[in-house]
Design a protein that fits this description.
Strand content: 15-25%
Mean pLDDT: 87
Helix content: 25-40%
Shape: globular
Low-confidence stretches: 1-15, 183-187
Length: 187
């Protein structure tokens, strides 16, 4: 479901560090509510969220908040030449993935400014390395490409992915960043 990605804005007054944990099935209703609030232009069915969690629990995270989840990450191994279209079930993970795919990250406004995306990326980099993958790939939608560029991602040219990218929006682009032996840059 990548509404691709992050609606990160200027830091808020929140200073506590980000506390990501593994997503549980009990979190799905809160995660779906966050998605509807943060990514209203990129709706996905509840089944998409449930399938991602079932296929790759290690790639699904929740940002712990005082009153419940304040954000989430959906990610999984994949192939960069065919990113998942918006609101489409995967069916299965590929037998030979070539990247760790960041399908979606969303933070509620009050949870921003705690370096949460960088902390999540570091966790995903560790999962990618453990899976033998050297890159994190995502679809940046709308104006989010500038954010991801500042986070070290560069555009990928995959002609086969063009129609899929249009399922998100006309400005959507595929982006990639190497995880390296120590993980992605977090500055």
């Amino acid at each position: 479901m990548t509404p691709p990605l992050v609606a990160v804005t200027a830091p808020s007054s929140v200073t506590a560090p980000a506390a990501w944990r593994g997503m549980r099935a009990a979190d799905l209703s809160a995660v779906i509510a966050i998605a509807a609030r943060v990514h209203p232009d990129y709706p996905e069915d509840a089944a998409v969220f449930g399938e991602r969690l079932a296929l790759c629990p290690a790639g699904c995270l929740v940002l712990e908040g005082a009153g419940g989840p304040d954000g989430y990450v959906l990610s999984h191994p994949w192939r960069d030449d065919a990113p998942p279209a918006l609101n489409v079930a995967l069916g299965a993970l590929p037998a030979r993935p070539d990247c760790w795919y960041l399908h979606d990250i969303a933070l509620l406004p009050h949870a921003r400014g705690r370096n949460a995306p960088a902390a999540a990326l570091a966790m995903l980099a560790a999962r990618a390395r453990k899976a033998g993958l050297s890159r994190i790939v995502l679809v940046a939608t709308g104006s989010a490409g500038a954010y991801w560029h500042r986070a070290g991602f560069t555009a990928l040219d995959r002609p086969r992915a063009a129609a899929i990218l249009r399922s998100y929006d006309p400005a959507a682009r595929l982006m990639s960043r190497a995880v390296g032996p120590e993980g992605p840059r977090t500055d």
